[in-house]
Design brief:
Radius of gyration: 34 Å
Largest sheet: 22 strands, parallel
Number of helices: 0
Distance between the termini: 100 Å
Strand content: over 45%
Oligomer: single chain
Structural class: mainly beta
Helix content: under 10%
């Protein structure tokens, strides 16, 4: 069987490289006239100071295939829905093409080249069909089923305008009608090529919407690094698309103007800072569209944003501080922040996928966040925004978090925490925040009430403490709808041999910091269970009900005021002790 193709742009690859020379020793090159590219210009190496004007328009190329053997066959499939050639049409954008199996280099060996994109392209369109056995192209070259190979490497040059750089074939399969001399059948051939797309130098000024594209029929990796400069103009989008393959970002200086977007898209990818020149500036957006992507080093993009759009994908932060103004996880994707990583954001955050890992999420300023799923995540720290936990699962699976930090400094606009799921926390440092309890909440390690407020809302389940805690006179638990609309009576349960202490906050000299303030919650029940203890040592404490079932409540000092005390039940004993000099006032029922 023999194979023929009538187009020149079929078999090979594009490579662009350079040798980096220190600026202080850069040679002076003679000026060259501009080159207007208004058709197909074949070049495999560009390493001079020429300015190329890549104009709009198209050039015509043949797309037919002739496949013959012992008999004869047409090149076209009978099915109009199938591609009948390696290209969907016979016209191609004007530009610089490389169609041989040699690779291509853009360098500054004899001068820095410049490219002005005005509708034109730089395109390595080399590819082979996945033929069986040895075939022959129309130029007489013998080929087999091996994809064309060669890197497309860019290490120098200035690129401006509507940048359009491509590697591989725009069609990844072709159908033909083939005959062996007796029968005629249709056959699909894979159109493939290999080689990386390397961008290790150059200046990219995307003043219009732009793209750097590797087609999916090309097997390779997109590598972005070195001292490459990227400037995305306001309102413009630059897309670097690996065609479902891998992208590695190890360097580069990225400046994204307001409304400007730089998109990296592929199957998997990683951003790892391998040199000190990597930076992100401006207030634009870095968009990551991957099934999985990792940020492996610190990243300061304090005025810009990151948007992850991989459908059901995963974004991993593995090491260092990532600081951004805006952060978005879309399309039910998940976020993993590892123990050595920390994410700080200033704007609202919504994650409907899972948030996992042992790292820290810091919601700075007035940033709000809502989480539908949490699986033992590390630490969340709230500024002055609103943090909401909801249970996105259909069953009664607990949502868990190791550490929750409320607003850490006194502020008239302190943060708000909404518990709308059956939550399990390791440690809660309430700070100055207000926590609205709409569901159950279990504290395993520590609850530091600090100067915070807890509000029991309608249908709230008990707040359960499995660790010792101190409730200060500066703390507030709201159980009265006249104080907060929708508030209702609630229960704090201490269990498992731990101790809940009611005490007054004092300064370094032992003086009460707020002499006129006492703890009071008219609808609160304190339940002491399973060998636990409740110790009342504040000057004055007031709430509704105290129960001690297989537990002990002791008034060590000061005054305790309650409506009801129940000690033990039909099956278990309990203890209630009032020390000498202390007072317990029970206005309603006392049962033991």
């Amino acid at each position: 069987m023999r194979v023929y193709r009538k187009s020149n742009c079929f078999k090979a690859c594009l490579m662009i490289s350079t040798a980096l020379t220190a600026a202080a020793f850069a040679p002076v090159f003679p000026a060259r006239a501009d080159t207007v590219v208004d058709s197909r210009l074949a070049k495999s190496r560009i390493d001079d100071g020429t300015k190329y004007i890549l104009s709009g328009g198209t050039w015509n190329g043949s797309t037919s295939w002739d496949i013959g053997g012992d008999g004869w066959a047409e090149n076209e499939s009978d099915n109009p829905d199938r591609n009948n050639s390696a290209y969907p049409n016979s016209t191609f954008p004007n530009g610089i093409y490389q169609s041989d199996n040699t690779g291509m280099v853009i360098s500054n060996a004899t001068g820095k080249p410049e490219f002005v994109f005005d509708g034109g392209v730089i395109w390595d369109d080399s590819a082979y069909g996945s033929f069986t056995g040895t075939m022959r192209l129309n130029n007489g070259t013998l080929v087999g089923g091996t994809a064309a190979g060669g890197d497309f490497s860019i290490n120098s040059g200035v690129f401006r305008g509507a940048i359009d750089i491509r590697k591989g074939n725009s069609v990844d399969t072709v159908w033909t009608k083939i005959s062996d001399g007796e029968t005629v059948s249709e056959k699909e051939y894979v159109i493939a090529s290999t080689g990386n797309l390397n961008i290790y130098g150059g200046e990219f000024y995307a003043t219009e919407d732009s793209q750097i594209l590797m087609y999916k029929g090309n097997t390779g990796t997109v590598n972005v690094g070195g001292s490459t400069q990227w400037k995305i103009s306001a309102g413009k989008t630059m897309t670097v698309n690996a065609g479902g393959h891998e992208i590695n970002i190890t360097g580069g200086q990225f400046d994204l103007a307001a409304g400007g977007t730089l998109v990296f898209s592929g199957g998997t990818g990683a951003l790892t800072k391998s040199n000190s020149t990597q930076s992100f500036t401006g207030s634009g957006t870095l968009e990551l569209d991957f099934s999985e992507f990792s940020i492996n080093s610190a990243m300061n993009f304090e005025n810009g944003g990151i948007r992850f759009t991989g459908k059901n994908g995963a974004l991993n932060l593995t090491n260092g501080d990532v600081i951004v103004s805006r952060f978005e996880i879309a399309n039910s994707a998940s976020l993993n922040i590892s123990e050595k990583a920390r994410l700080s954001i200033k704007s609202d955050l919504v994650i409907d996928g899972n948030l996992s890992g042992k790292g820290e999420l810091i919601l700075s300023d007035k940033a709000n966040a809502r989480f539908g799923r949490l699986d033992g995540f590390g630490t969340i720290t709230l500024g002055s925004g609103t943090l909401t936990f909801t249970d996105a699962t259909s069953d009664d699976v607990s949502v868990s978090l190791e550490v929750l930090n409320g607003t850490q400094k006194e502020d008239s606009d302190a943060g708000v925490i909404n518990i709308n799921a059956n939550m399990r926390f390791g440690t809660v440092n309430l700070g100055y925040s207000t926590l609205y309890l709409n569901e159950g909440m279990e504290i395993v390690d520590a609850l530091n009430f600090d100067h915070g407020t807890i509000v029991f809302m309608q249908n709230a389940k008990p707040l359960t403490l499995q660790s010792s805690a101190t409730l200060w006179n500066t703390s507030t638990i709201v159980t009265d709808s006249s104080v907060v609309a929708g508030a209702t009576e609630g229960t704090v349960t201490i269990k498992d041999g731990k101790t809940l202490t009611f005490a007054d906050e004092t300064d370094e000299n032992g003086n009460k910091t707020d002499p006129d303030r006492h703890f009071e919650s008219k609808g609160l029940t304190v339940a002491v269970e399973d060998g636990a203890n409740a110790v009342f040592a504040a000057e004055k404490t007031t709430f509704k009900t105290l129960t001690a079932t297989n537990g002990k409540a002791s008034v060590d000092s000061g005054e305790l005021n309650v409506e009801t005390v129940r000690v033990g039940d039909q099956n278990l004993n309990g203890d209630f002790v009032v020390a000498a000099g202390a007072t317990a006032n029970v206005s309603g029922t006392f049962s033991a």
